[in-house]
UniProtKB/TrEMBL annotation, chain A:
Name assigned to this protein: ABC transporter ATP-binding protein
InterPro entries (UniProt xref): AAA+_ATPase, ABC_transp_ATP-bind, ABC_transporter-like_ATP-bd, ABC_transporter-like_CS, Oligopep_ABC_C, P-loop_NTPase
Entry's family note: Belongs to the ABC transporter superfamily.
Keywords: ATP-binding, Nucleotide-binding, Transport
Taxonomic classification: Bacteria, Bacillati, Bacillota, Bacilli, Bacillales
Length: 681, 314
């Protein structure tokens, strides 16, 4: 059968300062009509470049398509002139591209109507009035309220989720045959992600359009894709139907990915198995299996042979690997490797039954409020308040991890900053080690500061880029006067480096010489330097790739055990929070709406918002996803400036009753340690 | 947008207020007694007393300032010590050539500079880019007066295409006026043109690697349309800022240009008055120029609203 799009042996290079970076290396794939096909892999593995090459969207120079064919309707797209009539008809007209960054992918100085109409007029050859009518129809179809008036608005007047809807409207308005969605939900919250992907799927299915879903999220793949291509280091390493691949993964990298991600349905004690090491440098690639240095299945043959090519292992399922992993007792290998690669877990502790937590709380936050004034005009007249955190209470014991989840903008980071006293709380108490630090003067507070540290998403973003790793880690030692001389300082810095699994020899390097995972290790070392009892982790692992993410999660967990640390773990990834937390609090619009121990919260959620959040998280298992009901939460998080009356969730709540508009529910205990703020449960 | 305008006007008023303070204090910045400096050593006590009174120097400083400012607001800039003429009239007489040349040179620098920068950016790395970039770097390094003299020598004396120097008002003879104005305007505007070209080039290069340009290309739009419709309006925003910042440059440059081309404008008036120690005239000219620059800057700022909807809808 002839495929709708048939790509054969595509290769793309980037030539930068004389080095050839093989971003795409001999990739072949095909798409059939109406299919949803997913490309999975970590960042930098060439997913975007692969798809941009086909439409000649690669910046040349430095990019160069060095070989292959991209056959669409019998024409090789690579043979067409890059700015010629023929390819421009296909580009945008027949094959649409939706990019990752919704915030920057629309032109800020043109109205959204103009941008969508432009496509329609160009490809469908209709007049402006007709194009405008179609645009409004399309805006309605993608769920933009008041489409008739909003068509004349500019992109900055829309939220990130809405902008991604606009992109979908723009691309689909010309009835393309193929839509390439490149990480379209990566920057969005889970509920928005679910909204966007459901919308995209429904539209392409109704139009019989094919969808290429590029993502690093295995859950998204399992929920939406029919067929998969797994990419690694610029090559396709495995392909097959979604069910086949999840059921019977045959490439060690695919297996590694699956073991590295925490899942909502994991047993709690499941140890994540990170894929150790780093992805290879694509410059000067050797003709060898690219996964070799990180592979736990490698044999002599792998070392001595050229890079393996895709081999059919079953009907429609191919993997690029010399070893038949289904015949190897892989569990043993994996366990061994983990043990030997664990740097921190050396002093194997005998497993004691969960140590009893102390009676008194390490941290107790009572009725914390954090309001920011909203000023208007040049006279800085106060016209209102953003109630970023509005009456939040929780506690944390020594040695415990409390997870704080919620969509972006719900006040998680503000809570963290208030606890660190980077903000002065408007009201409420923050009792830390028995003292209220919420109103403490800076001078009195200083000696206490060393007991609370913070780990950020990117530890270097707020630091001088010329600062060495050593000074990043050592700074708290000096600030808090924790060392007496140069010698002690050096010893302590080296010790910290080893604690987080870094070679102290790297300490004179500057930030950009480290990978994302290494940078986060440095951030952790810095946080540990002052020997704190509490560490606040604000989205500490969100920017990392899944295989690296698992390494950092394991590190945080073993450090906690060794040093009896407490974590306030803030993240938007609910699976990660479930994996790492003892108790979890769910925030919505500046309030905690539900809190419980992790098991209760995930197995028996009561608040409709918690249920919606959990329902939106895709589970990386196509068989489970098939059975699951997908209830998508409507609407967007309202601005904290005009919080809905009564229960602030009432405008999105699926079980709201009329009273919800007037009664403002407060947290009440429904069973031991499980508190919910809802009047209807 | 209304708020943006109000805010800008408010800021302009504050800036003008501070500038007026400087202009006023100028008279006190001259070392020694200003009256003695002006009159010279042979002044009689009577003359000294009269000038002191005329300048109001016998009153307390804040009072002096307020009455001076009051005068300025009502259009009374005092009387020239040397010419014994009303300063306002003096300035009004000398203003047209300066404004004419200034505006012409500003327009030339924008109309030529921006497209040159855009072309250089689009053809980045090619010979056109190299030519534009090199010549704009070169233009910025040439001093105005040198270029002016060179121009006179070449186009007026040697080729005889343009008049050597002087100024004719457009109301008198429109075409002759253009012939007089073109060379001083070009000379005055050249460095601004070069700076705007450079700014337009770098801002265009910045814009064409933005995600929304990639989006536009992925829609199948012609490169030419992408540049004109999607890139230009974004790229122009920082150029407008720089253009506003260049205004004082043009005003300052006019002092030299008017000298070289023998144009009887404000620039020359300032220079003559400084040499004559005619402080009242210097004060008057400076305040008028400050108001002109501030007003032009205000217009430039307001044009942001046209280019950038994010400001319009604030
Ligand atoms: N414009 C570019 N210039 C140089 N290198 C690039 C460019 N775009 C992509 N690359 C390189 O190509 C490789 C593949 O990138 P990409 O396709 O974006 O990965 P993915 O989409 O899978 O995250 C990376 O090593 C990246 O650094
Ligand atoms: S070919 Fe060898 S090294 Fe490569 S993935 Fe397979 S087993 Fe691992
Ligand atoms: S109080 Fe009402 S609106 Fe709020 S969560 Fe409960 S049912 Fe929904
Ligand atoms: Mg990508």
């Amino acid at each position: 059968m002839e495929h709708l799009l048939d790509v054969k042996n595509l290769s793309t290079e980037f030539n930068i300062d004389g080095t050839h970076l093989k971003a795409v290396d001999d990739v072949s794939y095909h798409i059939d009509k109406g299919e949803i096909v997913s490309f999975v892999g970590e960042s930098g593995c060439g997913k975007s470049v692969t798809h941009m090459s086909g439409l000649q969207l690669i910046p040349t120079p430095p990019g160069k398509i060095t070989g292959g064919e991209v056959i669409y309707k019998g024409i090789d797209l690579l043979k067409l002139k890059p700015d010629g009539e023929e390819i421009r008809k296909i580009r945008g007209g027949e094959i649409g591209f939706i990019f990752q960054e919704p915030m920057t992918s629309l032109n800020p100085v043109l109205t959204i109507g103009e941008q969508i109409m432009e496509s329609i007029i160009l490809h469908l050859k209709v007049g402006r009035a007709e194009a405008r009518r179609r645009t409004i129809d399309m805006l309605k179809k993608v769920g933009i309220p008041d489409a008739e008036s909003r068509i004349d608005d500019y992109p900055h007047q829309f939220s990130g989720g809405m902008r991604q809807r606009l992109m979908i409207a723009m691309v689909l308005s010309v009835n393309p045959k193929i839509v390439i969605a490149d990480e379209v939900t990566t920057a969005l919250d889970v509920t928005t992600q679910a909204q966007i992907l459901e919308l995209l799927r429904d539209i392409v299915k109704s139009m019989d359009t094919s969808l290429i879903l590029v993502t690093h999220n295995l859950g998204v793949v399992a929920r939406y894709a029919e067929r998969i291509y797994v990419m690694y280091a610029g090559t396709v390493v495995e392909t097959g139907t979604t069910k086949e691949i999840f059921n019977n993964p045959r490439h060690p990298y695919t297996i590694g990915l699956m073991n590295a991600v925490p899942r909502l349905d994991d047993p709690k004690d499941k140890k994540l198995v990170p894929v150790e090491g780093l992805p290879p440098n694509l410059a000067n690639k050797k003709d060898q299996c690219p996964f070799l240095p990180r592979c736990v299945f490698r044999t002599e043959e792998c070392h001595s042979s050229p890079a393996p090519s895709l081999n059919e292992v079953r009907e429609g399922h191919a993997a690029a690997c010399y070893v038949d992993v289904s015949k190897v007792q892989n569990n043993n290998i994996v366990e061994d490797e983990v043990a030997s690669s664990m740097i921190v877990g050396e002093q194997e502790k005998p497993i004691i039954n969960e140590p009893a937590l102390p009676e008194e709380n390490l941290l107790e936050v009572n009725h914390l409020k954090m309001y920011f004034p909203v000023t208007k005009s040049i006279f800085k007249r106060k016209v209102g308040e953003v109630k970023a955190v509005d009456d939040v209470s929780f506690y944390l014991k020594q040695g415990e991890t409390l997870g704080l989840v919620g969509e972006s903008g719900c006040g998680k980071s503000t809570v963290a900053r208030a606890i660190l006293r980077l903000y002065n709380p408007s009201e409420g108490e923050i009792n830390f080690q028995g003292q209220d630090i919420s109103k403490m003067r800076k001078k009195v507070l200083r000696p206490l500061r060393r007991n609370i540290s913070m780990i950020f998403q990117d530890p270097f973003s707020s630091l001088d880029p010329r600062q060495t790793a050593e000074s990043v880690v050592g700074e708290p030692l000096i600030v808090h006067n924790l060392v007496n001389n140069r010698n002690e300082y050096t010893q302590r810095v080296d010790e910290l480096f080893r604690m987080v699994g870094l070679d102290p020899a790297l300490k004179n390097r500057v930030p950009h010489e480290f990978s994302g995972g290494q940078r986060q290790r440095i951030g952790i070392a810095r946080a540990l330097a002052s020997e704190p009892s509490l560490i606040v982790c604000d989205e500490a692992i969100s920017a990392l790739d899944v295989s690296i993410q698992a390494q950092i999660i394991n590190l945080l967990e073993s450090l906690k055990e060794q040093l009896n640390l407490s974590y306030l773990f803030i993240a938007h990834d609910l699976s990660v929070v479930r994996h790492i937390s003892d108790r979890v609090a769910v925030m919505y619009l500046g309030r905690i709406v539900e809190t419980a121990d992790w098991e209760t919260l995930y197995d028996n959620p009561k608040h409709p918002y918690t249920k919606a959040l959990l329902g939106a998280v895709p589970i990386p298992d196509p068989f489970i996803e098939e059975e699951r009901e997908h209830v998508v939460l409507k609407g967007e998080v309202p601005s904290p400036l005009n919080r809905p009356t009564g229960c602030s969730f009432h405008n999105r709540c699926p079980i709201a009753t009329p009273e919800c508009k007037t009664i403002d529910p407060s947290l009440s205990e429904i069973e031991d340690g499980h508190e919910v703020a809802c009047i209807n449960i | 947008m209304t708020q943006f305008i109000i805010q800008r006007i408010y800021q302009t008023v504050i800036v003008l207020f501070i500038l007026s303070l400087f202009c006023f204090l100028l008279i006190h910045m001259i070392p020694g007694n200003p009256v003695l400096t002006i009159l010279g050593d042979e002044a009689t006590p009577e003359e000294i007393r009269m000038l002191t009174e005329e300048l109001g120097l016998d009153r307390p400083l804040p009072m002096q300032y307020l009455s001076w400012l009051g005068g300025v607001v009502q259009g009374d800039l005092g009387t020239s010590i040397i010419y014994r003429e009303d300063v306002k009239d003096l300035i009004l007489k000398r203003l047209p050539p300066t404004v004419h040349i200034g505006i012409t040179s500003f327009i030339i620098s924008i109309v030529a500079g921006v497209p040159l920068g855009v072309i250089a950016a689009v053809k980045r790395g090619g010979w056109i880019d190299g030519f534009i970039t090199t010549s704009s770097n070169f233009s910025m390094a040439i001093p105005n007066f040198w270029l002016g003299i060179l121009g006179i020598y070449l186009f007026a004396l040697n080729l005889g295409w343009l008049p050597v120097q002087g100024y004719v008002s457009p109301t008198e003879d429109f075409w002759a006026s253009q012939r007089y104005v073109i060379m001083p305007s070009l000379v005055l505007g050249l460095s601004t043109m070069a700076i705007l070209a450079r700014q337009a080039r770098s801002s265009m290069l910045e814009v064409i690697r933005q995600d929304y340009i990639r989006t536009a290309i992925s829609k199948g739009i012609k490169t030419r349309v992408v540049i004109r419709k999607h890139a230009l309006k974004n790229a122009i925003i920082p150029v407008v800022t720089i253009a506003g910042l260049m205004l004082p440059n043009i005003v300052g440059g006019s002092v030299i240009i008017e000298q070289v081309f023998n144009v009887n404008g404000i620039g020359r008036l300032v220079l003559q008055s400084v040499f004559n120690q005619d402080i009242v005239v210097v004060q008057g000219c400076l305040i008028v120029l400050a108001i002109a620059v501030a007003a032009a800057n205000l217009l430039v700022d307001l044009s942001y609203g046209y280019f950038d909807p994010r400001i319009r809808y604030k």
